[in-house]
C-alpha cells in the first residue's frame, strides 16, 4: 500500500456519508446475496438466466413461458406459425435474446482498422431532433427524426428497405496514470450510410445504446421512489459536486408520469413499458400497450406493407396486434423475475481491499451499494428484499467525454443514469466479452472507469492516482460483483 | 472401499454433510460411480452418433431414397442415447461449462430459414449463400450468432436437413432426397456438404465429452469425483432437468402455446421420445443404473443409497416418483405437436407427465435436504 492510497482515502472521506452507510471496507454479512432471497449461485454461462431463487416450483411456469417468448425468433407475417409472426416491417433483431444473448450484455460490432466491420446487433441508435423553444416533447420525451422516427432500424423484412447502415469509427486517445503507466481509450463516432428514405434532418441527434444484462430488473423497479429521492437530496446536501436527479417519464403501463429507472438515460419507468417498447421498437412487434409500428410518412413501402398485413389479418379474423396480452404479460413476468447471481469471493483480501478503494474514491456516492425493496403487489418474492445493485438510478452529468448531446425526457445531453453494477464480473463468462458503457466503447472495466467525468471527475482522479496494486484490487472488486 | 468424509472446510458452504450413521455408501464412492455412469452414457451416445455419421456419409456419397431413410433411422436411434445424457447438464461441466459444446450440439428451437430454404424463401439460409464457407469452424461461429435461435449446427440442424420443415399436421417433415441431388435442387452440393460437416462436428463434440469423463485420466472427471461438493451439482442437475427444462421449457410452454413449432424435435416428430429419454436419464443417475447399448447393465453406489441410509421414506418416495414420470412420459402419444392441442386426449398425458416431474422435483429438493444441501436450485431454463 503506497502513501498515495492514504491520500485517496483522505481525499474521498466525505463520500462515505453520501452512501448513508459507514465506510465498510470489511466484509458485511449477506453482501454476497446481491439479490437478497432471489439470489442464485451459478457463475457459468447460465448465470443470468435463472428465475428468482425464491420463486416456487408452481410459479415458475409463467417464467418458462415468458422465457420462450424472450428467446423466440419472430418471423414475417403471414406464416404458418401464427403465434410467432409479425416481425417488422423494419426491425433491428428477431428476438429479445438477439440483443440480450443468454439474458446478458451485447457487444459492439467487431472493428478492423478503426472502423466497424458489420452491422451492430444489440447496439441501437436513438434518433431525434432538438425541440423548438417551448415545444413539448410529450409522451415520447423527444421529437423523433421526421423521416426515420425515434430509432434507427438497420434491418427489414423481404421487400422493405432497411433504414440505413451504421458505421462506427474509433479514434484512440492516450492517457497516463499518476505512476506513469500508459493507457489508451477509444472514442467512437457514428455515421449512417445508404439512407433509404432521404437525408437526415440537419439537426439530427443520435444516441447509441447497448443492450445490458437483464437481471434484477423487478428488484430495481421495487425500490421505493422515496428512497431514490432521498438519495438525490443527500447527494445535494453533501455538496461534493455529486448531485443526481431523477428523470420523469411517461409510463405506458401505468398511464402516468413516473420516475425513470431503466435505459441508459433512465427514460423508461417500468419493466412492462421497457418490454413492450423493445418488442415494438426493436422487432416491430405490436401489443395492446404499443399497437402501432413506426412507419413515418416518408416510408411508403413500410406503410403499404402494414396496410396489406392489416387487411390480411382482418380477412382471417386474426387479432390486430402481433403479441397477445397473455404472452406479453408472461414475457414481462420473465424480465421482472430474472435473478441476480451471488457475488464471488466477498471475503477475499484483495476484493475487500478493492471494496475499500471503491468507497474511498467516492464511487459509492452514485453506485449506491445497498437498497431495500418495498412491497410489490403480486410479487412477494421481490418484496422487502435487501439488495446490492450499486446504483442510485439517478441522472448525473458525466462530462463531455461521454456526452451524447441528446436530451431524453428530463435528461440533458451530458447526463446518464448510474447503471447497476451487479453481474459485471460475469459478463465475460456469459457473453464472452468485456465491452462496457452505454455504447460498448470501453474494452474492459478500467477503461469504463477512466471514461468517467463531470460529477465523477474526482472519483476518476482518485483512480488515476492509485498505484498498480490498488488498481488491480479495485478491478478485482468490480469483477466480484 | 470406504473413504471418510473430507474435513468440513473443504466443502462448499451450501452442503456440509453431517456425518450420519455408518451405513450406506461414502459420498466419494457415489461420485466415483457417477463418473463411471456419465462416461458410459457419453460413450454409447458417441458410438450411436458414429453410426449416424456412417449413414450420412453413405447418403451424401450417393443420395437416394433408401439412403435418406437409413440416415433418418440412425438419427432417431442416436437420440435415444443422447437424451439420457442431458441429466449431466446444468452445473457447468464439460457439456455446458465455459466453452462447452451444448449450444452447438443440441441448440433448439431453430429458425429454419437461417440454415436452408423454407416455404416461400427458396434462397434462404447458409446453404444457399455460396460465399459462406462450409467448414466446422465457420458453422460453429455462425451458431447462435445474432440470436439463440440461430442454430446452425447440432442434432436439430441435422434433423432439419434430413426431414425438412414439418408443415403437416399428421406426420414429420417430408424432405425429398432429390434436395441433395445436383440438378434437382439449387445448391444441392452445399446441402450435402453442410449435412456432412455438421454430422462430423457432432461426432467430434461427443467424442470430446466421452474423453472428459474417461477413467484414469487427467480430465474433468478426475477432479469432479474427488470433490464431495460435486454431489450438490449432481442432484441440482436432476432437479433442473426435471422441472425447468423438461416440465417447463419442453412441455408447459408447448401446452400453453399449442403451437406446432414449440417442440424439441419438430421436424422428425420425435419429441415424445426426447421426453422419455430425459426422464430415463434422470432415473439413471438417481439409481446409479444405466442400461447400455450392448445390453449390459451398469450399477453401483447411488444417490438413492445415500439418501436411503439417512431417510428411507424419502428415498422410496423419490424412487417411486421416478418410475411414475418415466411411465407417464412413455404414455405421451406421438406426434407431440398434436397431443398438446386442446381436446386431444394426448393433452392429459402430457399434463400428467408435467405433474409427475414437478412432484419428483419437490421430492428431490427434500432428498437434497436429507443430505444437508439446504437450497437446491431446480430452476434453470435453457
UniProtKB/TrEMBL annotation, chain A:
SUPFAM superfamilies: Cytochrome c. It comes from the Bacteria. InterPro entries: Cyt_c-like_dom, Cyt_c-like_dom_sf, Cytochrome_c_Peroxidase/MauG, DHOR. Residues 349-481 form the Cytochrome c domain. Residues 1-21 form the signal peptide. Keywords: Heme, Iron, Metal-binding, Signal. Pfam families: DHOR. This is Di-heme oxidoredictase family protein.
TrEMBL record, chain B:
It is found in: Cell envelope. The keyword Signal applies. It comes from the Bacteria. Keywords: Signal. InterPro entries: Imelysin-like, Imelysin_sf. Residues 1-21 form the signal peptide. Its main location: other. Residues 39-364 form the Imelysin-like domain. This is Imelysin family protein.
